[in-house]
Write a structure and sequence with these properties.
Layout: E1 2-7, H1 29-37, E2 43-52, E3 55-67, H2 69-72, H3 80-93, E4 95-100, E5 111-113, H4 120-142, E6 146-155, H5 164-169, E7 173-184, H6 192-197, H7 201-213, E8 218-221, H8 224-229, H9 231-244, H10 256-264, E9 268-275, E10 278-288, E11 291-299, H11 301-307, H12 309-323, E12 328-332, H13 336-340, E13 345-355, H14 359-372
Parallel strand pairs: 4-6, 11-12
Antiparallel strand pairs: 1-2, 2-3, 3-4, 3-5, 6-13, 7-12, 7-13, 8-9, 9-10, 10-11
Helix pairs in contact: 1-10, 3-14
Length: about 375
Amino acid sequence: MVHFKLYSSVDELPKEWNVIPTDDIFLKTGFLSALEKSSPSNIRSFYVGVFSSETLVGIAVLQRVELYAEDIFRNAQRHWLKNLGKDLVSAIAKGNAIIVGNLMHTGQHGFSFASEAISQEAFLDSIVAAIAQLSSQIKTQIGKKIRVVAFKDYFENDPIHSSAALFQSQNLYKVQMQPNMMLSIAPEWTSPPDYVLAFNKKYRRRYTTARKKLNPFTARELSLEQIKTHQETIYDLYESVSDNAGVNSFKLHPHHFYELKSHLNESFKLFGYFKDEQLVGFYTLILNGIHLETYFLGYHQQLQHEHHMYLNMLYDMAFFGITQQFKTVIFARTAMEIKSSIGAKPHVMDVYLKHTHTFFANRILKLIVKYMNPVKDWEERHPF
């Protein structure tokens, strides 16, 4: 008999949790513990174990997210169209949402199940039931109604799309998001110079120019204690980039990077850029099986323009992926054009979502999601 259990803390999880066949570090207890200790103030994680009789056959992460316009629209430009979008979010999407997956990172990091032990349909039925139980629990305990439900970030070839009938029965609509930008590491790239030599003349010159502009800086990896020492500066640099984005659905906890390093050890990397021993920029990486996941970064806006810091960070991320023999560097969504200029390719992703109130609100919600995460017109670059 298939049944599920809902957990509110990593400490409650069954010991078999990490045995479920997945290499995804975002579903392992190390990452989940770090996130639990340093989650954004508007996000709380819950966990679902799906059992066949007494055997754990599937796991899922649900995030309860509180969405409010003042948090989503930070430093947004004062323009009538943006204000209209802000008003729509306030009217339709504000309040509590349940996300199947990790709102903080691009990709399907929401669940895994043993396909030989349980069908996809039976597993997803359990997740839908768990969402209903969590929604009822939140309503009873804190008097808040869940207004939005979403299953997030599936590639077009993901098996989940074969369960379209289930999503339709739950009034969940499929919406295309910005693509996930991914760099496939060619087998012949055994070192960074191999990668640079693969560029055509135009992009090799661009690389040379960018690296010259980085000359005043030195880059080095920070240890756990060094992350603690520079924690305040790291967070200020992160805010400089995050707030400049205008539209965002959360703000990281000030201790987030320290907790990740503490729990993930060598699977989490933070590299800092220093000028006269002052930290002026950083980027982070998560080592996820054969995939290198780029994570959050930060820099001084003025130095970014003068020294091409963002472009140089992209190069350095690619170099790490090559030297450490990863198959793919996942650059996530946003800034698609500049990421394509270093060789990343777009991969379309979809979400399934619904508003729990009315059919009309559901239709408006689809427009809001596209407004907040637009599939923008952009020119793909071809550097090789």
